[in-house]
Amino acid sequence: MAAERVKPSFRDWALDGTPDFLRLDDDSDREAFRRWFAFLAEAQYFAAADERPSEIVDCAALARYAYREALRRHDSAWAGEAHLPLMASIASVQKYSFPHTPLGPALYRLRPGPFLPGDVENGAFGQFANAQTLQRFNTFLVSRNAAASMRGDLFFFRRGTEGMPFHTMIFIGHSQVAPSALRYVVYDTGPREGRRGEIKRLSMDEVLSYPDPQWRPVAANPNFLGVFRWNILRTGS
Predict the structure, then answer these.
(1) Which residues have a Cβ under 8 Å from the Cβ of 123 and sit 6 or more positions away?
(2) C-alpha to C-alpha distances, 161 to 56, 129, 186, nearest whole angstrom
(3) Would you call the peptide bond into 99 cis, given omega within 30 degrees of 0 as the criterion?
(4) Rounded to whole angstroms, how far apart are CA atoms 185 and 146?
(5) DSSP type of residue 95
(6) Distance (Å, rounded) from C-alpha 78 to C-alpha 81?
(7) Rounded to whole angstroms, how far apart are CA atoms 31 and 168?
(8) Domain map of the chain by residue range?
(9) If pLDDT is split at 50, 70 and 90, which confidence band does 165 have?
(10) What b/e string do you get for 149-175 counting C-beta neighbours within 10 Å, with b at 16 or more?
(11) Which residues, at least 6 apart from 65, have a Cβ–Cβ distance to it below 8 Å?
């Protein structure tokens, strides 16, 4: 359905701050979003560093980029502007396409509380959100067991340090770029000592046995907040 034909419903059945007009209502749209989100994040790992979008500067920026671009109409015009190292053959989300949403380009919830009609234009949504904001207001907890992950889910971590206390990894599952029996996560390390961060792709075996235990997605790790899923994928009544 074209975005301009979407009649906004100000209902928020989950009371999570995400309006129902943004939720993806059917399985095909949810699967299309998952596949595009994971593909776009993984494709940046394979892209040359100087060819990546300049906006990707840390883990949250990678997630924001892949989320927004997963909701676009993936036509030839988009492909010409995306500058990806390779292209996927995946159907686009049909309910709406970015930036033609009832919220315009402001996709990310920025404050707590259920969605109210005034939130469309009172600053409750924006185009930027850090990792903490993505975790608190734009996703919901699925489990603290990484085995519950589905493609496109997020692992969130919180450290008791300044600088980058929140960190996220994107669970992409089986690669859509380089087929393998392994399942992977991708993430941006963020800038270090004035240098641009690095995008890494690790298998689940590698991340579960990561040398620094504070980055292992296991319930025994107090820094691991759990597996989170985007609110627009939330299903219910």
Answers:
(1) 110
(2) 22, 20, 22
(3) yes
(4) 11
(5) S
(6) 5
(7) 21
(8) 7-126, 140-233
(9) confident
(10) bebbbbbbbbeeeeebebbbbbbbbeb
(11) 40, 41, 44, 53, 55, 56
CB of 124 closer than 8 Å to CB of 109: yes
Work out the widest C-alpha separation in the chain, in whole angstroms.
51
- Name the nearest CA neighbour of 152 among 40, 26, 25: 40
Distance, in Å, from the CA atom of 66 to the CA atom of 68, rounded to the nearest integer, reads 6
pTM for the complete prediction?
Answer: 0.93
pLDDT value at 231 more than 80: yes
- Burial letters 200-226, b for 16+ CB under 10 A, else e: ebbebeebeeeeeeebbbeeeeebbbb
Whether 199 contacts 177, CB under 8 Å: no
User: What is the DSSP code (8-state) at residue 17?
Assistant: S
Question: Over 80: is that where the pLDDT of 222 sits?
Answer: yes
Q: Considering only CA atoms, which of 78, 70, 67, 77 is closest in space to residue 94? A: 70
Tokens found for residue 97? 């396409």
Quick one: which of 64, 74, 73 has its CA closest to 96?
A: 73
